[in-house]
Amino acid sequence: MSHMSARLASILSILFCICNLANPAMAKKLELPGHLKLTFYSHEIWDGPNATLLLAAGTGQGQNNMSATGMGTIYVFDNPLKTGPSNDSKVVGHSSGTAVATTMQPIMTGGLYMTADHIFDKSSKYNGSRITVIGTVLQAHKPYELLVPGGLGYFLGCSGYASVSSVPNITAPAHVCKWDFNLKCH
Ligand SMILES: *[C@@H]1O[C@H](CO)[C@@H](O)[C@H](O)[C@H]1NC(C)=O
Ligand SMILES: *[C@@H]1O[C@H](CO)[C@@H](O)[C@H](O)[C@H]1NC(C)=O
Ligand SMILES: *[C@@H]1O[C@H](CO)[C@@H](O)[C@H](O)[C@H]1NC(C)=O
Ligand SMILES: *[C@@H]1O[C@H](CO)[C@@H](O)[C@H](O)[C@H]1NC(C)=O
Ligand SMILES: *[C@@H]1O[C@H](CO)[C@@H](O)[C@H](O)[C@H]1NC(C)=O
């Protein structure tokens, strides 16, 4: 191989690598239907040694009784994301983020402002992909709707909203939320 063609080959191999890196997300993006509806369940535990939601700062009231939360309270959570509401449903990832009591009203109707990433793991076909949500839960008007500004990996180019509701009859300290995602993908 001449000096020139060796150089060309190395440039081409770099380009090829870059394309390879870009490819998985792009290829998956092309497979996406215009409209994506997905449902997942986040499983929170509010108390005890396996708590997945922690009161990180604030008034100190509300770790195991959210009604007692005062303005300025910050929660951090890392909840398993499952395919169903029951404890033994398949885990497909986790929902991690923060929630802040930003209201002067009683928290249960005043709202809790949250941002979170729903991150899918290897047991999901969306392995490594994520959906970001931003918005207020626990406000006066149900259902709670959060903005999905975007996603990454499989969800690159998708945006829309998520509707979130509590699954009834789950006994404390466990708390299960149903997440219905309505996404438009370009
Ligand atoms: C906490 O998790 C561990 C490991 O999964 C489990 O063995 C234990 O029973 C759990 N404790 C409670 C109180 O749920
Ligand atoms: C939770 O907190 C609210 C508001 O402070 C209070 O009225 C209620 O009694 C508490 N519930 C429990 C089970 O402690
Ligand atoms: C849910 O399952 C986990 C482990 O699989 C266990 O530690 C926990 O006690 C269970 N929780 C309930 C409420 O059954
Ligand atoms: C999931 O993604 C990780 C990181 O990209 C990768 O190492 C792993 O092989 C993937 N697993 C499956 C089952 O797709
Ligand atoms: C929840 O429990 C209440 C009272 O026990 C019952 O009336 C209701 O049907 C239950 N809901 C579900 C979805 O199981």
Automatic annotation (TrEMBL):
<protein>
    <recommendedName>
        <fullName>Dirigent protein</fullName>
    </recommendedName>
</protein>
<dbReference type="Pfam" id="PF03018">
    <property type="entry name" value="Dirigent"/>
</dbReference>
<dbReference type="InterPro" id="IPR044859">
    <property type="entry name" value="Allene_oxi_cyc_Dirigent"/>
</dbReference>
<keyword id="KW-0052">Apoplast</keyword>
<dbReference type="InterPro" id="IPR004265">
    <property type="entry name" value="Dirigent"/>
</dbReference>
<comment type="function">
    <text>Dirigent proteins impart stereoselectivity on the phenoxy radical-coupling reaction, yielding optically active lignans from two molecules of coniferyl alcohol in the biosynthesis of lignans, flavonolignans, and alkaloids and thus plays a central role in plant secondary metabolism.</text>
</comment>
<comment type="subunit">
    <text>Homodimer.</text>
</comment>
<comment type="similarity">
    <text>Belongs to the plant dirigent protein family.</text>
</comment>
<keyword id="KW-0964">Secreted</keyword>
<feature type="signal peptide">
    <location>
        <begin position="1"/>
        <end position="27"/>
    </location>
</feature>
<dbReference type="GO" id="GO:0009699">
    <property type="term" value="P:phenylpropanoid biosynthetic process"/>
</dbReference>
<dbReference type="GO" id="GO:0048046">
    <property type="term" value="C:apoplast"/>
</dbReference>
<keyword id="KW-0732">Signal</keyword>
